[in-house]
Amino acid sequence: MQGSDLFVKCLENEGVQYIFGLPGEEMEDILFSLEKSSIKFIPTRHEQGAAFMADMWGRLSGKAGVCLSTLGPGATNLVTGVADANLDKSPVVAISAQAGIQKLHKESHQYIDLVDLFRPVTKWNGSISSGQVIAEIVRKAFKMAESEKPGAAHIEFSEDVAGSEVQGEPILSKRVRRPDPDNAAIDEAVALLKKAQHPMIIAGNGAVRKMASDELTELVKKHHIPVAHTLMGQGAVLDCEAQSLFSIGFGFRDIVMDAVEQADLIIAVGYDIAEYAPDAWNPDSTKKIIHIDFTPAEVYTHYQPNVEIVADIPATLKALNQKLDSNDVSFDSSWYKPIREHMVEDRASYVLREGQPFTVPGVLNILQTIMHNDDLLISDVGSHKIWIARNFSACCPNGCIISNGLASMGIALPGAIAAALHSPGRRIVAAMGDGGFLMNSQELETAKRLNLGFTVIVFNDNDYGLISWKQQMSRQQSTGTKITNPDFKAYAESFGIKGYRPKDARELREQLARSLELRELSVFEIPIDVSVNQQLIEKLRSN
Q1: ∠ Cα 42 397 526 (to 5°)
Q2: What values do phi and psi take at 202, rounded to 5?
Q3: Distance from C-alpha of 339 to C-alpha of 225, rounded to nearest angstrom
Q4: What is the DSSP letter of 303?
Q5: Taking the chain (543 residues) in consecutive chunks of 10 residues, what is each chunk's mean pLDDT?
Q6: What is the dihedral of CA 462, 364, 279, 305, to 10 degrees?
Q7: What gap in Å lies between CA 136 and CA 150, rounded to an integer?
Q8: Alpha-carbon distance 34 to 57, whole Å?
Q9: Backbone angle region of 383, left / alpha / beta, with phi > 0 → left and psi within -120 to 50 → alpha
Q10: How far is Cα 289 from Cα 233, in angstroms, rounded to an integer?
């Protein structure tokens, strides 16, 4: 058989359902081998969009999402999405075609050393330079991408190997069991908890993966320990639970920091330093810390755990629960209840009243009343991301997804395409700013072609609003952020997609409810008043 046929058989063996990418000459054999397989190749409109789709597929499924490009500019266009997956700890396997091996030792058309290119943004990457290594390379890429902590892997596949005659079979994938926690480490953690008065949990990205949510919820409810979530840890404990202090990790001092300052012990569960540096919550490096994760703690001045429990997170939380039960350890919840109540009241204050202009938190209040607990909100990156993390309640694990490792603009729309393919019955909203929307808005055609249904919300302020907001906080003015935009409603309609520009809160509520109920592909342009951003900072400073 051809090398490309064996390659595709190996992908089938890994359970791949979709490959997102753009066609190219050097991948001709791969594309025709895919045509004969059970895997569906989805042509996208940009390789970055393809990588973001693979990124979101990996995050939702726990299995590696796959993206494909040709050599040269096709591969370079993949890099941002691959880097995003790697820092967001989402399993992805990126495949790039390459010129024939006889061309690689000299300058040649569109040739770049892709293994070197992808090395800094992947957990592992390698080149298929011989038909004999196809099965091993594919198995290793998927194993590395999916093992804790997950991330991105890259395969370079030369066109002459793809077209050559080869022999071989896929290597079977077997479940790798993660270790149980060390009993001595559990005992040390319990000893620290016994001495604590105000323990607090910071739940990160790892607390959402691998079914850790159930065990973490049992821990916080049984023993009355409050939990704040990083932006990518949202939903590890549902925000409707009395122990949830919602999110942590903004670029300013918010209400949740009252709890952090009172806490005398931090239990970091699946905490990811890449998305929220410990300098912000442990500035003087005096907090006692219990580190619970699949991997050892990073060496960091402001993050020096007293105990590290490096093991399967759900198994660790279960063992910790059992030990705390047998030692009858529980805590008074009165210290954090007023803080949660303050946060709930603050969220409720952003109600849009008749005649008021739209604001992001006001729109989120409307959206919260319309969306079901198992719906999905995907946030792009921009000022709206801060409000979503701060004011939108995650009502199930992976119910609110925010990219915050690389934090790349342009992820939400391609991400919604992957989410709709992964969970076709789920109601999905992709929320983005005008800047992020126009970075990958061409993927509307992909969504329309695939007959997918989800709702796109574009918060329009004609500005790179997050940068403008941060400049205002530091210098009381902004520069270099103003932009202009097309008519987004007409733009959506040019793709044959429903476009909306609601005039007021009542109309927005009605149109959003109908769009979600019908699961129609639609774009909402919502002009927003950004004065609420600085008003928040002033309010928090006066508290």
Answers
A1: 65
A2: -110, 115
A3: 13
A4: B
A5: 93 97 92 96 98 97 96 95 96 88 59 91 94 94 95 93 87 83 93 95 89 91 94 92 92 91 96 90 94 93 95 94 87 93 94 91 95 95 94 89 91 98 96 96 98 97 90 88 95 97 95 95 96 88 79
A6: -150
A7: 19
A8: 19
A9: alpha
A10: 18
From 375, 402, 376, select the one nearest 388 (Cα to Cα).
402
- Token pair in block for residue 452: 């997918």
Calpha distance 421→452 (Å, rounded): 8
Strands 307-310 and 376-379: unpaired
pTM: 0.94
Beta bridge partners, 247, equal: 229
Residues 18 and 40: beta-carbon distance below 8 Å: yes
Decide if 270 contacts 233 (C-beta within 8 A): yes
| Structure token pair of residue 327 | 């030692």
Structure tokens given for 15: 């359970």
Q: Where are the domains of the chain?
A: 3-162, 183-339, 349-542
The beta-carbon contacts of 511-514 under 8 Å, at least 24 apart in sequence, are 512/366, 512/367, 512/370, 512/455, 513/370
Contact 314, 215 (CB under 8 A): yes
Query: Which CATH number, 3.40.50.1220, 3.50.50.60, 3.90.226.10, 3.10.120.10, labels domain 183-339?
Result: 3.40.50.1220
